[in-house]
Amino acid sequence: MIWLHGLGADGHDFEPIVPELMLPSDLPLRFVFPHAPVRPVTLNGGVPMRAWYDILSLDRGAPMDEAGIRASADILIGLIACEKERGFTAGRIVVAGFSQGGAIAMHAALRYPEKLAGLMALSTYLPLQDVFEAEVLQDPRCGFQDLPIFMAHGRFDPMLPMALGQGSARLLRDAGFTVEWHDYPMAHAVCAEEIHDIRNWLLSVFAAGERQD
Fold first, then answer.
1. What residue spans define the domains of the chain?
2. Is the dihedral of CA 164, 205, 21, 110 positive or negative?
3. pLDDT digits (tens, 9 = 90+) for 109-129
4. Distance of CA 198 to the CA centre of its chain
5. Which of 41, 51, 109, 163 meets the CB 3.0–4.6 Å disulfide criterion with 119?
6. pLDDT at 61
7. CATH class of 2-212
8. Is the pLDDT of residue 211 over 50?
9. Which residues form the catalytic set?
10. What tens digit of pLDDT does each residue of 27-37 get?
11. pTM over 0.70
């Protein structure tokens, strides 16, 4: 499972959640928590910090850092390649992310030319939606509609309003994807109930993988 952190955090951010998932000992799940590159972030006054891409504005419809998004998606694809070299097939790899990391996970997973085990997107949204149809739906190498997708969001998120996540989930469902959606009474965070739901989803994903194998 490759899990990308959010803006300003680092790869250690979600490490404490692993024991909280209380996954069974017979599930040999390897977690990879990479660090985003350090770059200036326009929204934060140009201060350099770990970020998967620049954020120009939080206004809906504002321009996105397309180059940064695509570059970080390439980083994730490279991490998938590393795990495949270790002997994991694409169908045994889950990509996940929170906030900015979730946006990169969504962008890369939906375009990946093999079906992954699953996509987990927390408190996030699908970026570059204007090219989604051309790059995913119209490309026969991409868009595995049976890809298991877990999306979750805080109802009181002041940074990325839940409507952004709901809109992304709706877009995916309209395109034929099945999205397991959860929302919680929290802000831009992760809560205990969400961790419980992530655990159940992971168990279902890997149980399905065992049946297919």
1. 2-212
2. negative
3. 999 999 999 999 999 999 999
4. 13
5. 109
6. 75
7. alpha beta
8. no
9. 99, 157, 188
10. 989 999 999 99
11. yes
